[in-house]
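Format notes (please read before filing issues)

Several people have asked whether sequences and structure tokens are stored in separate files. They are not. Every record keeps both together, in the order shown below: the sequence lines, then the token lines. Line labels are part of the format and must not be stripped during preprocessing.
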Amino acid sequence: MRLAVLKERRPVETRVAATPETVKKLLALGITAVAVEAGAGLASGFTDAAYAGAGAEIAPDAAAALAGAAIVLKVRAPLAADEGGLDELSLIPRGALLLGVLETVGSPGRAKAYAEAGIEAASLELLPRITRAQSMDILSSQANLAGYRAVLEGAVAFDKGFPMLMTAAGTIPAANVFVMGAGVAGLQAIATARRLGGRVSATDVRPAAKEEIKSLGASFVGYEDEESKAAQTAGGYAKQLSADFYARQAEVVAAHIGKQDVVVTTALVQGRRAPTLLTAAMVGSMKAGSVVVDIAADAGGNCALTVPGEAIVTGNGVTILGYRNWPGRIPGAASALYARNLLTFLTTFWDKDAKAPMLPEDDDIVRGVMLTRGGAVVHPLLTQAA
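Then the structure lines:
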């Protein structure tokens, strides 16, 4: 049983799918060899020497790491022949189990390619929101760090202080921070902004979010009606609501935006483009020197003026940070949590006698994440598209 860990080659990806800590624990499961591609962890602060010290074999390139691998760990989907650069997909052995954030809901052709290559692919961003899956919940672990990092970068970009500063020369007031979306990233953003001394308010369409926002010491801002009471799926995600609701919500938010120094937007709807929460007019009402931090930039952005992958300054002097891959901006911690998520998944389904993962088709977690099995696309979200 050989396991391979590849260097990530997609743009702006700084994370790695295993750390020296998890390499030791993978070997303790009974995996005979963990092959780590040379340089795979450098962007996250993990040297080849550290991996070797944990018992890993350092492979000179992807082909050497993947040779004979039965399990492949990735952060992002492996590159295919038509994407330029190294064709990672062609190097993965038939029958191997591929684990990662494979992003196939928006790119169903990937699942078909995995099936044709005979790869047993599991995409862990599709984990069901159930208690058993919490410790392997990749979206939550990465969103938590994204919310934290977003506030830090917003504080750096803001041209005044975050806490109230009383000096002999006068007083600098605390920054007004508004967080849009109170999921995992938003709640961490609220907590971080509060720790930095900001005056924090937040909004979310989900009914449970109001109490969560208040429990962290922030004030709630938002429009509430009967529709908003059903704004959450059984899995805990925000639902798409009517245009009328969003218009009324926007009226309430617009009146609040002009007074804010830093706005952090975090709203995502699974499998869709991020909803526009911050219009150009709202940004236009903000003061010069204010900052918008758009965590949803990878999905198009919550701010109408966001340029994914860039930091811009608008004509009225508002800075908009639309960086991609927010967890990747804190790669050491993000990689550590991501690697533990993968380790927990493998440990949960590890057969000690066979010294191999066993993924029963009737298990809720397995059914939620498996894209392909036995050369066929099996995930219900993809079977028609594939």
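For reference, the curators noted about this record: The first strand starts at residue 2 and ends at 5. The domain at 2-136+330-377 is CATH 3.40.50.720 (Rossmann fold).
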